[in-house]
Design goal:
12% of the residues lie in helices and 22% in strands. By secondary structure, it is an alpha+beta fold. The chain has a domain at 42-88. Strands 1-3-2 form a three-stranded antiparallel β-sheet, with helices on one face. A hairpin with a 2-residue loop joins strand 2 and strand 3.
């Protein structure tokens, strides 16, 4: 990255062989990587508040990195004049 813009480099190759197509990375189009995990459950919970800092505090308190539930990732997102908490389990 340079000045917030994508900088293409010539001669790049994928680290591992792709399932389809060439391992050469096209500097005009870049790459797309798609992966899958065993299972993920996503929950979006609308909060009855427009206080975004309160929503962030709630998300932090339920997530594993904030000392909450193991294997839970959570973040606060603005939504329709209020906020909601998005969680991945």
């Amino acid at each position: 990255m340079s000045s917030g813009r994508w900088v293409a480099r010539q001669g790049l190759q994928a680290v591992c062989a792709p399932d389809h197509g060439s391992p050469d990375i096209d500097p005009c189009h870049g790459v797309a990587a798609i992966g899958a995990s065993g299972w993920v459950t996503n929950l979006n919970v609308p909060l009855a508040t427009s206080d975004f800092e309160a929503a962030r505090s709630i998300a932090r308190s339920v997530s594993a990195r904030g000392g909450g539930l193991a294997a839970v990732e959570a973040m606060a997102l603005p939504h329709s004049g209020g906020a909601h908490k998005a969680s991945n389990l």
